[in-house]
Amino acid sequence: MTAFFDLPVRRIQTNGVEIAARIDGSGPPLLLLHGHPQTHAIWHRVWPELTRHRTCVAADLRGYGDSTKPPATPGHTAHSKREMAADMIGLMQALGHARFEVLAHDRGARVAHRLALDHAEAVSRMMLLDIAPTLDMYEGTTRAFAQAYFHWFWLIQPAPGPETMIEHDPVFYLRSVMGGRPGGLVHFSAEAMAEYERAARLPGWATGICEDYRASATVDLDHDRAGREQGERLRMPVRALWGERGAVGRNFDVLALWRAIAEDVSGKALPGAHYLAEECPDALLDEAAAFFGWR
């Protein structure tokens, strides 16, 4: 297998945007989705083992990395998780994968949640890292959660306020968010940090991340509420993992919230805070091997 950072980044047209991805490995297809404020490079430490057992597609979400960064739209619909999920189903279909597994972190896990609802026939099983359902997190917000996840409430403020401040020094913003978690920046390799910083400097990045969060606080909640009213549920196996030192498990009953909207849920805390693929890659790989079934 080719080393992660030596792989070329492919660009695939789908759903009116261009999605950037690295692809390698053999076996059943596995879609990997990153979170904020990173890129698909979050998977570099687990990539060698994953690609021994799966054909891995690590993609940048729209608005992030080297994928298209659409302008803001009324109602934030261009950055809804429904549109992001449509990007990913189109990407996988373009690569010849009608049905696949999903491993997703943070914002990417929110996209995966919507993907598995809107395109249930395509997702065989999914592992979600360090999130509870978006609707429940907003409705269950406490002072402690708001302090730990201040960016949820700052990024959704009207444009161009947050964008202007981020664009003044995007690397400072990125480092402050990532370094503000337990453990600081020690978990991130120099090569990965260089990639995250490069991506943060790209035109449109600040708009992309703000619109992602604005969508999650508006149109995405509308979609989630409507789906629940209609009895929408996840029917594939779901494995939820969270950081034992992180804010998600400290502020929410992660398994109970997922079990309320899914039929087959298991999970546990891992020895990390939030960026599990980089903080505790061996523990994550053990979980992936058991859940996806190559061990």
UniProtKB/TrEMBL annotation:
EC number(s) reported in the record: 3.8.1.3
Annotated protein name in UniProt: Haloacetate dehalogenase H-1
AB hydrolase-1 domain location: 28-169
Record-linked InterPro entries: AB_hydrolase_1, AB_hydrolase_fold
GO MF: haloacetate dehalogenase activity
Gene name of this polypeptide: dehH1
Keywords of the record: Hydrolase
Organismal lineage: Bacteria, Pseudomonadati, Pseudomonadota, Betaproteobacteria, Burkholderiales
Pfam short name (any one): Abhydrolase_1
First-level EC class: hydrolase
